Amino acid sequence: MLDKNISLNNFINSLSIQNFRNHENLEIVTKKPSVVIYGKNGVGKTSILEALSIFTNGKGLRNSKLLEMIKVNEDMFCISLNIKIEKNIFLDLSSTYSKTKKTRKIYINGKEKKSFKDIKRSFPMLWITPYDEKIFGGPSASRRNFIDRIVANFDLNHTTRINEYNKLLKQRSKILKENEEDKDWLNVIEDQLSKIAVSVCSSRLDIVSRLMKFLEKKSIGFPNLRLEFLDSIENKLLIQPALDIEKELKLNYLKSRKVDVLIGGSLYGCQKTELFCFNYEKNMPADMCSSGEQKILLISIIMACAKALKDSTNISPIMLLDEVFTHLDSSKKRILFDELIELGSQIWITTTETDNFLKKYDNVQYYELERE
Q1: What digits encode the pLDDT tens for the residues 104-113?
Q2: What is the rounded distance in angstroms from the CA atom of residue 142 to the CA atom of residue 136?
Q3: N or C terminus of the chain: which is more exposed, having fewer CB within 10 Å?
């Protein structure tokens, strides 16, 4: 059942991996829009998706250090992709990291670049991993990181702002501990913090509102849900001008200095954002739902993100799905896969089995992975 309308834009034609995780030398040439990588646990299926993901997120889907990605007893890993974007534009991408030199190098068509930022907008990727399923019941930071990862697909400067904010917050903490009398420098830092925090929260609010346009639509087999912020700067942005919030936040940084020096951070700022998810079908918050229900909610959010990206950029993101079909019944598996096909995304799926329901589709390429 091949959908003739499927878009081959944003398509990975081939993947080459050397000395990455447990893979010494691996090559995959894609012949069909959907790639199913199957094999026993521990053979490195997730590592293949991680290798793909570092081209849009430097730390990959495991959020690991580059040093941790190098195969044991090796000095360097190298990952290469040949991709097709837009109509007939082909690019060769490479990423390497050397343990001894402690340097990462990035190449586009053989020329060294500082980053892949220039092509990220044309080459979006989304993923779902078993780790993501824990966000609803985990600490608020896990939900912030999750939504920030989504926002970064729309706003390419979002991650840079967050990194700059965290850097300034650390500088402020150091001054409060070592040189609290440096009022002028504290004022400058807190002014910058207030501006960046409001900018970060504004982007979060914008993207969540875009997601809600799709999450509010009833989808067969998947629940309606609500995403919102709780007692956060994002809520204030709905009713107050951004400049007023910046002034208020700057004043709060000033008032909280004595407490902040004790806690080593700040009582205020975009690092305090709390994201809340409510399952309308079960009439309960996501953190009270079963693990299976939470997985379906997560899938719904990522699918809404994929649709919102396509709506705003006309590009179907590549989907990396790590064991996504586990614990889903056959009906939901078919519904999810049919939606992915309709979206026009290239899909990379890992599974311990070949999933019989996939065999009725002729747009699926199977790649069996065995222990090296």
Answers
A1: 999 999 999 8
A2: 8
A3: N
Percent of the chain with pLDDT over 90: 68
Amino acid at 154: F
Distance in angstroms (rounded) separating the CA atoms of residues 369 and 98: 26
Hey, which residues does 104 pair with through a beta bridge?
97
Q: What is the DSSP string of 349-365?
A: EEESS--GGGGG-SSEE
Calpha distance 146→127 (Å, rounded): 11
Q: How many Cα atoms occupy the beta-carbon half-sphere of 64 within 13 Å?
A: 17
Cα separation, 82 vs 252, whole angstroms: 50
Alpha-helix runs per DSSP H in the chain? 45-53, 66-69, 117-120, 140-154, 158-178, 183-215, 233-236, 242-255, 257-263, 291-313, 330-343
Q: Model pTM?
A: 0.91
What are residue 68's phi and psi, to 5 degrees?
Answer: -70, -15
Q: What tokens appear for 212 in the block?
A: 């809600």
- Is 286 in a helix, a strand, or coil? helix
**In whole angstroms, what is the distance from residue 284 CA to residue 216 CA?**
16
Q: Contact at 8 Å (CB) between 325 and 351?
A: yes
pLDDT higher than 50, residue 34: yes
- The CA distances from residue 279 to 24, 141, 224, 320, 338, in Å, are 44, 21, 7, 24, 23
What is the mean predicted confidence (pLDDT) over 125-152?
93
Q: What is the pLDDT of residues 265-285, one digit of tens each?
A: 999 999 999 999 999 989 999
- The two tokens of residue 232 are 């956060």
